[in-house]
């Protein structure tokens, strides 16, 4: 029978494998898991307390902000701003950096996060989630964090993960080595290790892309999608939830490929990307690569992208190595 391990025990055991560790990252992640439990409780009962619906604001990326977005955003800030582990934060919901209040100590880490990814679907009870990424600061210890502390490639992350609030609440986390999944037992409020050392299948049978954009892709993207749905590809299924966290979580566990390529709908010349690098594509790329997958813009590994702005976006092709290789062969004109 599998041993019972909660996320706290897992983090302590991981810390013990690094004699140089101060325990700062462990404590930071403990605080984060408490925020996730609070958000999970609200998401799971939102309809009962009429938290559904939008508050009529737009966030930095122009998305409509829902009440649950703000609850998740506020919960993470209030949980994380005083623990002394962070020098600043960056959120999808805030245009600028989130400073640590003067009265609190500044720590050596930086937290970038999407408090509630996929929230535009939440009124339909579609799975949503929180995505987080943790870098070590670059600016001097003890000072206020600055933009350069946040604008780092996801290759340099010290930890990243997501929590999917779905049929169950599951935390998927990596602190550099394996990718491990913890399922929340709401009865006792513990994240229990349920998916140790997640490895993405070498190839899947599912492709995931918003085909409503198919008239606005580059031709080579359309050629790949036409191929993957043809008998020649061997019988792929299409699954698209419209919540990145859910689409990538399924891809991680079942294999296959998730795509959000550049579209030329609004700007036929330069096109535009949808997914944000710092707190969506970057941490997801970090996790999928550590689970044996591949994450690319089509020309560059996503983990190598050097962010220049907080809310910058990038193209995304992420999933099983063989599936992403097929996609890249079309993108590079080799097929
Ligand atoms: P579309 C959700 O709003 C999100 O940011 C991602 O979670 C999701 O993958 C994407 O947008 C869906 O975009 O254009 O297909 O609705």
Percent helix: 25-40%
- What is the third-level CATH name, the topology of the largest domain? Fructose-1,6-Bisphosphatase, Chain A, domain 1
State the separation between the terminal residues, measured CA to CA: 48 Å
Q: Any ligands, ions or cofactors bound here, and which?
A: 6-O-phosphono-alpha-D-fructofuranose
Named at the architecture level, the CATH assignment of the largest domain is: 2-Layer Sandwich
The CATH superfamily name of the largest domain is Fructose-1,6-Bisphosphatase, subunit A, domain 1
Major sheet: order of its strands?
Answer: 4-3-5-6-7-8-9-10
Low-pLDDT residue spans: none
Based on helices, strands and strand pairing, what is the structural class?
Answer: alpha+beta
Question: Radius of gyration from the CA trace?
Answer: 19 Å
What about the largest sheet?
Answer: 8 strands, mixed
Shape type: globular
Number of strands: 17
Q: What's the order of the H and E elements?
A: HHEEHEEEEHEEEEEHEHEEHEEEH
Output the number of helix runs. Answer: 8
**What top-tier CATH class of the largest domain fits best?**
Alpha Beta
């Amino acid at each position: 029978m599998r041993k019972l391990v909660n996320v706290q025990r897992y983090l302590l055991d991981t810390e013990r494998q690094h004699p140089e560790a101060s325990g700062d990252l462990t404590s930071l992640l403990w605080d984060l898991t408490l925020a996730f439990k609070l958000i999970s409780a609200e998401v799971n009962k939102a309809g009962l307390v009429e938290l559904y619906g939008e508050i009529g604001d737009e966030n930095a990326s122009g998305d409509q902000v829902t009440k649950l977005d703000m609850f998740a955003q506020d919960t993470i800030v209030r949980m994380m701003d005083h623990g002394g582990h962070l020098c600043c934060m960056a959120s999808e919901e805030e245009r600028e950096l989130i400073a640590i209040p003067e009265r609190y100590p500044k720590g050596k880490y930086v937290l970038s996060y999407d408090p509630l990814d996929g929230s535009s679907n939440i009124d339909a009870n579609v799975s949503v989630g929180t995505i987080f990424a943790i870098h070590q600061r670059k600016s001097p210890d003890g000072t206020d964090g600055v933009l350069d502390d946040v604008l780092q490639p996801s290759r340099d992350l010290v930890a990243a993960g997501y929590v999917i609030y779905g049929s169950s609440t599951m935390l998927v986390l990596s602190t550099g080595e394996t990718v491990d999944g913890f399922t929340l037992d709401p009865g006792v409020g513990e994240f229990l290790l349920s998916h140790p050392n997640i490895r993405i299948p070498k190839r899947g049978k599912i492709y995931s892309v918003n085909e409503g954009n198919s008239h606005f892709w580059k031709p080579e993207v359309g050629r790949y999608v036409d191929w993957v749905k043809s008998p020649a590809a061997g019988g792929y299924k299409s699954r698209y939830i419209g919540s990145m966290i859910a689409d990538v979580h399924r891809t991680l566990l079942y294999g296959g490929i998730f795509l959000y390529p550049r579209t030329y709908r609004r700007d036929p010349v330069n096109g535009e990307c949808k997914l944000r690098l710092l707190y969506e594509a970057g941490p997801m790329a970090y996790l999928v690569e550590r689970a044996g997958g591949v994450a690319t813009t089509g020309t560059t590994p996503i983990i190598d992208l050097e962010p220049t702005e907080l809310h910058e976006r990038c193209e995304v092709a992420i999933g099983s190595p063989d599936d992403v290789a097929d996609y890249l062969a079309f993108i590079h004109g080799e097929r």
